[in-house]
Amino acid sequence: MCRSGGEPTGAGGAAGTNAAFTALLEDSAEDLYESAPCGYLSTLMDGTIAKINATLLDWLGMEREAVVGEARFADLLTVGGKLYHETHFAPLLRMQGELGGIALEMKTADGRRLPVLVSSVIKYGGQGEPLLIRTTVFDASDRRAYEQELLRRREEAEQARAEAERARAEAERSRAEAEQARRQAEADRERLADALAALQQTLVPSSLPVVPGLETAVYYHTASPDLLGGDFYDLFPLGEGRWAFFLGDVSGKGPQAASLTSLTRYTLRAAALHDPEPAVALATLNAVLHDRYTAGGDPRYCTAIFGVIEPGEGRTTIRLASGGHPPALVVRGEGRADYLPTPGGLLVGALPDASFSTAETTLGPGDTILLYTDGLTEARAGRSRESMFGDDALRAFFADPASASPAASSAGEVVASLTELLEGFGEGLDDDTALLALGVPARRTAPATDHSTTKQPR
Fold first, then answer.
1. Which ranges of the chain have pLDDT less than 50?
2. Fold annotation for 15-139
3. Which GO terms describe its molecular function (predicted)?
4. Other CB atoms closer than 10 Å to residue 372's CB: what's the count?
C-alpha cells in the first residue's frame, strides 16, 4: 500500500499510529482532575476549601486564590442551600461518612443560581479519625430545567383537571337546576291546566238536559290547554214545552274571554226568560256588551246564534236569530243538507243599535239542525294544511247520498261524524271548536238521548 507521495507504507506506519494514540492517553492525573467534566473540591472537616478543580471554578466564575483557604463549601451555596447544608447535609455526612446525589444550588460570581447534584465522602486516617471531605459536583441545570418543565406541565394538568371538575360540577348543578325547573314547570302547568279545566266547566254546561221528543249532541274542543276557550253554548227550558238554545264565539282568549263568555251566557239566559224572541235576546246582549265594554273604550264583542225550539207532533218548529255567526246547517233525513240563512246579523256588542234578523224552519223525523263555530270551517285541511275546510265542504259532507239514512242524520251521528273529521285534521285544527246538534228522532219510540263530547287539545 503506498502514500500519495509514492513512499511505501507498512509495519512502520502502523507503529507510528499506535505511538500517537498512546501519547494521547498519557494525560497526567492533575490534568484529569482539573479538566474533568464535573467539579471536584476537597475541604477540611470545618468546610474550608483546600482544593478545587478548574471545572468548578469555571462554572462559578471564580478565581482559585479567592476560594482555596479563603472560603468554606457552604459559602458557595445559596441561602437555602446553606441552610440545608448546615441542618441536614453536614450532620448526615458526619454520621454516615458519605452522601450521594444531593440536590443543592450554588451561587456564581455574577449572582446566578447553579443547580447541582453533590456527592461527598469523608477520608479517614489510619486511626479512623476524619481528615477531609472529598466532594463531587455535577451540573444539574438541564435536569432542573426538565424537572421544572415537568412540574409546570403537572401543575397545568392539575389545573386543567380542577377546571374540568369544576365545569363538570357546574354542569351537574345546572342540569339538576334545569331538571328541577322542568319538574316545577310541569307541576305548575298541570295545576294551571286543572284550574283552567275547572273554570272552563263553569263556562259551558257539564251536560245537556234531556228534551222530550228531541235528540241532542254536543262537542267542545279547546285549542290550547293553557288558555280558556272562547266558544260557548247552552240549552235550557223556557216553559210550556219550549226550549232556548244558543252557541257563539267571543273575541280574544284567556281570562278576558272567560269573563266575556260568562257575561254573555248569563245575559242570554236572563233575556230569554224575560222575552224569548231570538232577535230581542240578541239585542239585549248587544246593549249589555256595548255599554259594558265598547262605550268604555275597551271594545269586546261576540258572534252568536240564539234560537227557540218547540217539539210538536210530527213537526218541530225552530225560530232563531244570528249576530255575525256562521249560518246553521239543517241536515234532512233523506240525505239533503242546506244552510238556514240569517242575513244582516251584525257582531254582537260592536254597535250601539245593531239589528238582527230572524229565520224559521221545521224539523221532521230524522232531521237535525247543527250549530257550529268557525273553528270547524276554518280548520286547515289537506296534506299541506294550507286550505280551509270551508262552508261548501261542510255542506257537501252531509249531502253525500251515501249518508242518506235516518241514522246518518241523527244528532248523535252528525256530531260523531264531525268529531272524527276534526280529529283527522290533526294540527290543522288550531282554534276552539264547538258543535251543538238538535234533532228529531226518526222513530218516536226511540228515547231522547244526549251525546255530549268535550275535548281538550292533545
1. 1-7, 9, 403-407, 444-448, 456-458
2. Beta-Lactamase (3.30.450)
3. phosphatase activity
4. 26
User: What is the three-class DSSP state of 141?
Assistant: helix
CB-CB neighbours of 267 under 10 Å: 19
Report d(CA 443, CA 312) in Å as an integer: 14
Phi first, then psi, for residue 322 (nearest 5°) are: -125, 140
Q: Quote helix, strand, coil % in the chain, to nearest 5.
A: 40, 30, 30
Please state whether beta strands 231-239 and 368-372 pair in parallel, antiparallel, or not at all (unpaired): unpaired
In the β-sheet with 328-331, what is the strand arrangement from edge to edge? 337-340, 328-331, 368-372, 433-439, 215-221, 450-455
Give the helix ranges, DSSP H, for 225-366: 254-274, 278-292
Task: List the domain boundaries for the chain.
Answer: 15-139, 202-455
- Residue 54, Cβ neighbours under 10 Å: how many? 15
Residue that the C-alpha cell 441545570 belongs to: 141
How crowded is residue 48: how many other Cβ atoms within 10 Å of its Cβ? 16
Provide the CATH number for the domain formed by 202-455 in this structure: 3.60.40.10
- Per DSSP, the residues of 381-422 read ESSS--EE--HHHHHHHHH-GGG-STGGGSHHHHHHHHHHHH
User: By C-alpha distance, which of 202, 227, 235, 438 is closest to 318?
Assistant: 438
Strand partners, 217: 437, 451
Angstrom distances, CA of residue 25 to CA of 20, 22, 79: 9, 5, 42
Give the span between the Cα atoms of 254 and 230, in whole angstroms: 8
Those residues with Cβ within 8 angstroms of residue 348's Cβ, 6 or more apart along the chain or in another chain:
248, 264, 282, 285, 286, 289, 301, 302, 303, 304, 323, 324, 354
What's phi and psi for 110, nearest 5 deg?
-95, 10
Residue 121 CA to residue 102 CA, distance in Å, equals 12
Written as nine digits, the cell of 247 is 252557541
- pTM for this structure? 0.59
Contacts of range 97-104, beta carbons closer than 8 Å, 24 or more positions apart: 97/121, 97/122, 97/124, 98/122, 103/140, 104/77
Cell output for 391:
262552508
Distance between start and end Cα atoms, the chain: 108
pLDDT tens digit string along 154-209? 999 999 999 999 999 999 999 999 999 999 988 887 776 666 666 666 678 888 99
